[in-house]
Amino acid sequence: MGYIQELRDLVGNRPIVMTGANVILLDNEKRLLLQLRTDNNCWGLAGGSLEPGETLEEVAKRELYEETNLVAKQLSLFKVFSGQEFYYKYPHGDEVYNVIATYICTDYEGVMKEQADEVQALKFFRFDELPGKLNPPEIPILSEFITTHYCESI
Questions:
Q1: What's the rounded Cα separation, in Å, for the pair 97 and 14?
Q2: What is the pLDDT along the chain (154 residues), one digit of tens a residue?
Q3: Model pTM score
Q4: Which of 32, 67, 107, 145 meets the CB 3.0–4.6 Å disulfide criterion with 74?
Q5: CATH class of 2-153
Q6: List of E strands, 82-118
Q7: CB 39, CB 90: distance < 8 Å
Q8: Distance between CA 138 and CA 141 in Å, rounded?
Q9: 134 vs 32: CA distance, rounded Å
Q10: Which residues, 6+ apart, have CB-to-CB distance to 1 below 8 Å?
């Protein structure tokens, strides 16, 4: 989180616009990979913030690999999310307005392994059995994905 930390050193906890990407990764049983985050103890998608010079797709691939040890062979853009409902205040006080490019990945390789600094656990969930404590900025993303994709296959 180099660039964001540099901004934080200048502005403190004040709200900033944070651009990033995350990945809805589905296994061959159409289960969703979630990670238990160390920063807020919530389940969420692999993802993170944009570094200068990166594309949003590069962010998604990098963060997926860093946090899960999985390599996305192909990503497709689901949607870009922003607005008031993507405001978030981290437990340590930093405030952000997220702009999030969400990608879908079903073609990946590697052996799943948690990144200890950011991830407590990794687990695949069926959409009808998602954990109760989800990362707040990702609730509307998952809700829209489930509504537009999962409900179509029922």
A1: 11
A2: 589 999 999 999 999 999 999 999 999 999 999 999 999 999 999 999 999 999 999 999 999 999 999 999 999 999 999 999 999 999 999 999 999 999 999 999 999 999 989 999 999 999 999 999 999 999 999 999 999 986 654 3
A3: 0.93
A4: 107
A5: alpha beta
A6: 87-89, 95-109
A7: yes
A8: 5
A9: 13
A10: 48, 49
